């Protein structure tokens, strides 16, 4: 190929698509970011549109998907809005809240998904070109499956992005689910010819066992698709890196012989479930998401995590009698923690005069476990706060509409004290801060307090690695696995070749 025929620097990149959601493309993209950075490439991650209630606040106060934040960390790049220009946060089965270039930008109805996103596509393409002008390579992550041809007309995340930017596409498939070879073959078959020419190869993910047993199937796939299998990545244990959606929540919840048990309520609209990752990484601690009243009763600590629909999830909690199980814990002096939306549920009253969450003005009774009131307003609060608790430094981030304050009518004779930016009373704690448990000293001090209240023998292990160190170690393990299975050179060769118009 003549040098002048190569892909232009303005579009230099690679797109990792998946046969399904949760096929592992987020982690493969993170691994590739770390691998490219190791090899001296200035690389940025990108995802045109992310549909997730797990998000992160950048240093400038903007909001992006948690997966792209992690990929930026892997790349050694500063996370920014251009890396995830469109973030859709599902509020119901038929409506998502739009975060455009880091800020709230209305809603998207289910009926608009196929054809009502032209303005979002324009913003996404501009963001990609902006990144490409400042980085050597942009590594993009697709969404869902590129074979969702019912959505192809309005697609700007998978083949729509590939066509616009002349990107080669590598499809990742999760063999642990079964049927991966058929899913790959079917993915190619569902694409129109102009899209097919962008698909350059396959990566099999999460393989267990002897790869020689798989090779006949791989050869057949290569023969029938005329595309190479670039590599087979083995199953990697103990990876829970910043999962993008609820499909991945259960990946780390089992631990042998734990001495401290944490039960988190699995809300239908759970948000920022990654708050629990650092607890699950702590030696001797087991974390499980649950909808069982019995599990809530048995745990040392119950966590009400964040929610994208506080009022709806509060009603769901009551419908299942879980509110009563939580109230019994408080009477018995057993620890309960609410984070963001979960903290709002602990309040005496919740007021939504503008219908921010409910769609129409409303006021409802909260669980009444803290003497607080929540008032929803039009402005979304985004920030990267810091503080301390019992002398331990805490760094966190916040993403919420409601403002929580002490309620004089509910306070009566009770005494409540400050906890981070929230309040605590007895064995109940509430905070709007996400990510606080990633601060090692605070996490261990808080868990030690829980253990002392429940009689658990759990104590911190002073020689255990910190959470940030564990994240870096896991990113390196991912990059090592991708390097061994695929290698840097085949990937950079795809980037250099591009797909000519």
UniProtKB/TrEMBL annotation:
Q: Where is the CobB/CobQ-like glutamine amidotransferase domain?
A: 261-441
Residues spanning the signal sequence: none
Q: Which InterPro entries match?
A: Class_I_gatase-like (IPR029062), CobQ/CobB/MinD/ParA_Nub-bd_dom (IPR002586), CobQ_GATase1 (IPR033949), CobQ_N (IPR047045), CobQ_synth (IPR004459), GATase_3 (IPR011698), P-loop_NTPase (IPR027417)
The Gene Ontology biological process terms listed for this entry are: cobalamin biosynthetic process
Pathway membership: Cofactor biosynthesis; adenosylcobalamin biosynthesis
Catalytic residues in the record: 340 (nucleophile), 434
The reply on keyword Nucleotide-binding is no
- Fetch the CDD domains from UniProt: CobQ_N (cd05389), GATase1_CobQ (cd01750)
Annotated GO molecular function terms are: ABC-type vitamin B12 transporter activity; catalytic activity
- Keyword list, A-Z: Cobalamin biosynthesis, Glutamine amidotransferase
The record places domain CobQ/CobB/MinD/ParA nucleotide binding at 15-239
Q: Output the Pfam families linked to this UniProt entry.
A: CbiA (PF01656), GATase_3 (PF07685)
Against SUPFAM superfamilies, the record matches this protein to: Class I glutamine amidotransferase-like, P-loop containing nucleoside triphosphate hydrolases
Name the Gene3D superfamilies on file: 3.40.50.880, P-loop containing nucleotide triphosphate hydrolases
Please state which protein family the record places this protein in. Answer: Belongs to the CobB/CobQ family. CobQ subfamily.
What does the function comment of this entry state? Catalyzes amidations at positions B, D, E, and G on adenosylcobyrinic A,C-diamide. NH(2) groups are provided by glutamine, and one molecule of ATP is hydrogenolyzed for each amidation.
Its name, as the record gives it, is: Cobyric acid synthase
In which organism is this protein found?
Nocardioides jejuensis
Q: Which gene encodes it?
A: cobQ
């Amino acid at each position: 190929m003549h040098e002048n025929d190569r892909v232009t620097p303005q579009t230099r990149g690679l797109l990792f698509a998946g046969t399904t959601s949760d096929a592992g493309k987020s982690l493969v993209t993170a691994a590739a970011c770390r691998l490219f950075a190791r090899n001296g490439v200035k690389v940025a991650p990108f995802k045109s549109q992310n549909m997730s209630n797990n998000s992160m606040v950048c240093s400038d106060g903007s909001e992006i998907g948690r997966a792209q934040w992690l990929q930026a960390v892997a790349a050694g790049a500063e996370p920014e809005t251009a890396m995830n220009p469109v973030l859709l946060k599902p509020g119901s089965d038929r409506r998502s809240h739009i975060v455009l270039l880091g800020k709230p930008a209305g809603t998207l109805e289910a009926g608009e998904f196929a054809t009502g996103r032209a303005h979002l596509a324009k913003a996404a393409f501009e963001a990609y070109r902006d990144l490409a002008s400042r980085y050597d390579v942009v590594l993009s992550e697709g969404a869902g499956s590129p074979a969702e041809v019912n959505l192809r007309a309005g697609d700007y995340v998978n083949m729509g992005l590939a066509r616009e930017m002349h990107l080669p596409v590598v499809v990742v498939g999760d063999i642990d689910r079964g049927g991966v070879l058929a899913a790959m073959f079917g993915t190619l078959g569902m694409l129109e010819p102009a899209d097919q020419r962008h698909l350059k190869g396959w990566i099999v993910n999460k393989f267990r066992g002897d790869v020689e047993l798989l090779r006949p199937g791989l050869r057949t796939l290569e023969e029938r698709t005329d595309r190479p299998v670039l590599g087979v990545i083995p199953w990697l244990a103990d990876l829970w890196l910043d999962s993008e959606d609820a499909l991945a929540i259960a990946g780390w919840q089992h631990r042998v012989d734990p001495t401290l048990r944490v039960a988190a309520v699995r809300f239908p609209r759970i948000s920022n479930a990654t708050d629990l990752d650092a607890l699950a990484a702590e030696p001797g601690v087991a974390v499980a998401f649950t909808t069982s009243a019995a599990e809530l009763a048995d745990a040392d600590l119950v966590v009400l995590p964040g929610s994208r629909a506080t009022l709806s999830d509060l009603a769901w909690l009551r419908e299942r009698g879980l509110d009563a199980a939580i109230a019994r814990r408080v009477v018995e002096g057993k620890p309960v923690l609410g984070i963001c939306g979960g903290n709002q549920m602990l309040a005496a009253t919740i007021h939504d005069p503008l219908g921010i969450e409910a769609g129409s003005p409303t006021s409802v009774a909260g669980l009444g476990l803290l003497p607080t009131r929540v008032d929803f307003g039009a402005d979304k609060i985004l920030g990267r706060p810091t503080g301390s608790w019992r002398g331990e430094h805490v760094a966190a981030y916040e993403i919420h509409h409601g403002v929580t304050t002490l309620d004089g009518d509910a306070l009566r004779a009770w005494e409540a004290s400050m906890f981070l930016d929230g309040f605590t009373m007895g064995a109940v704690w509430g905070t709007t801060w996400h990510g606080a448990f990633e601060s090692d000293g605070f996490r261990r001090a808080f868990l030690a307090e829980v253990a002392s209240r429940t009689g658990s023998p759990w104590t911190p292990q002073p020689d255990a690695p910190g959470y940030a160190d564990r994240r870096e170690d896991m990113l390196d393990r991912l990059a090592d696995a991708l390097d061994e299975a695929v290698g840097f050179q085949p990937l950079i060769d795809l980037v250099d070749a591009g797909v000519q118009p």
